[in-house]
Amino acid sequence: MTSQMVFEENRVPRASWIILAAVAISTILSGLYVGLTPTGSQTELSGRTWEQFAAADPEVARIYSMDLVLLGISLVAFAILGTIVTLIPYRQGERWAWFALWLIPLLHGGVALRMLYDQYNAGYVYLGLFIISLIGILIPIRRFL
């Protein structure tokens, strides 16, 4: 048996890794949005504008803006790692990668729950990413368990 045949035999279904890679790449885009979009454009305030809030408490506004940039950077880094794990070891059928990639649906599910609890409509986007990534990770479940 050649090494190419062993590689082909160990690979996970194409649909699974394509779905997970697409969700991870979408997460990179989400992180870029969070990190690069001005804070006032992504912050919902009731009864006043971001400018009014920032003028009233500039230190808190600055810290909040910094937190959004750091959150965006962290999300992009996580998603790049998820993309690499999906495209190399998971695609080749590495069992540890399947377990590690459970972080993708867990992340999106947690974000969706919190956003929907707080009544942010963006939670539906993360709910969709959760469902899609859950389908992707469950496709080869019999292979890994």
Protein architecture, described:
The protein has 145 residues and is an all-alpha fold. The protein has one domain (12-139). 80% of the residues lie in helices and 0% in strands. It contains nine helices and no strands. The longest helix has 33 residues, at 58-90. The radius of gyration is 19 Å and the shape is elongated. The two termini are 25 Å apart. The model has no long low-confidence stretch (mean pLDDT 92).
Ranges where pLDDT stays below 50 over 5 or more residues in a row are none
Provide the residue-averaged pLDDT: 92
Instruction: Name the helix and strand elements from N-terminus to C-terminus, one letter apiece.
Output: HHHHHHHHH
Cα shape: elongated
What is the CA-based Rg, rounded? 19 Å
Beta-strand percent range: under 5%
Q: Tell me roughly what share of residues is in helical segments.
A: over 70%
Indicate how many domains the architecture comprises.
Answer: 1
Total helical elements: 9
Largest sheet: none
Q: Could you say which structural class the secondary elements and strand pairing correspond to?
A: mainly alpha
What is the distance, rounded to the nearest whole angstrom, between the alpha carbons of the first and last residues? 25 Å
Q: Count of DSSP E strands?
A: 0
